[in-house]
Amino acid sequence: MKNEQITYSIQQVADMVGVSKQLIRKWEDRYQIIAPCRLDNGYRIYSYNEVAILQDIKRLTDAGHSPKHAAEIIKSQQASQETMSDAILSNPIESYAVQTANFAQPSAQNPTAQAFVDQLITLGASGKDGAIVNVLQQAQLTMGVETLLKQIITPFLCRVGDLWYEGVWGEYQEAISSLAVRDFLVNLRRTIPISDSAPLILGSCLPGERHEVPMHILLIRCMLRGYRTIMLGPSPAPSAIQATVKLKKPSIVLLTASTNTPFEEHVSEIKELDQFAAVNPQIQFYLGGAGALEHAVLQHITLTNDLEIIFGTHKV
To answer: How far is 123 from 121, CA to CA, in rounded Å?
Structure first.
């Protein structure tokens, strides 16, 4: 049987994509990116290619795009008959790195990684933050740091967000899980040996942005490439970024905005930061994240979610 003739139930699709049935329905209704057929009893059935499209949306949202932006990218690629690899950007932020998508081929989840994610969800539901850290440490030893970031921590955080958004989890469970991941990443950054002569990267959320976990993940990926890193805390004071740049003189400044808040409440500070980048041309400024790519219009700070652009420009 050809792949195009295979159909799946919504539960099968949810398992293959790694999201809830409720979220699939929301993506379908809000963005009209797929149109599954219905059986006589009203149940949805999904084609092989529709599963692939949903997996592409999942990859893009994991990479830091909003679901709306992810759907727009896929629709644009469908219209122009181009491959998804021309559109997908690697993650910095809250979501993190993504492999080039194959538009027509659903990919299988690493079973070992999936087992770790399921274990973390069980512990998060019970609010066992210490046990979450222990499992993350075990996963690091078993899978390595890169796989840990891409296939365990990122899917875990996405599922945490889905559970909270759908009302299955309360704020306590979401906060405990996110803080446990944050604490683990902070300690992990301290254990990665880096030469004192390596180029320095300053990482910071924009003023008003409190989601700091994506930046920790981004900086760990930079450290694995041989960069020294320092990081400002969430929602730094408006002048803190400029002051730190003057003091530390980094080669690269990485900024993130996972939400719309910085562009709703700190527009003037962001414009000042853009002008600050203009008078410091020896330092490369980059800004990424779902909120940034959807709202930011800057002249001197490069908007991107693709770390390879940064790594290709700056060699360690």
So the answer is: 5
SS3 253: strand
Rounded (5°) CA angle 13-19-24? 65
Side chain identity at residue 292, one-letter code = A
pTM: 0.64
pLDDT digits (tens, 9 = 90+) for 208-251: 998 899 899 999 999 999 999 999 988 998 799 999 999 999 99
List own/partner pairs for 163-171 with CB under 8 A and 24 or more apart.
Answer: 163/20, 163/121, 165/23, 166/20, 166/22, 166/23, 169/124, 169/125
Are 61 and 89 contacting, i.e. CB atoms less than 8 angstroms apart?
Answer: no
Q: How far apart are the first and last CA of the chain?
A: 50
Query: What is the C-alpha to C-alpha distance for residues 54 and 34, in angstroms, rounded to an integer?
Result: 8
- If you compute the radius of gyration of the chain from its CA atoms, what whole number of angstroms results? 20
Q: Which two tokens stand for residue 83?
A: 């491959």
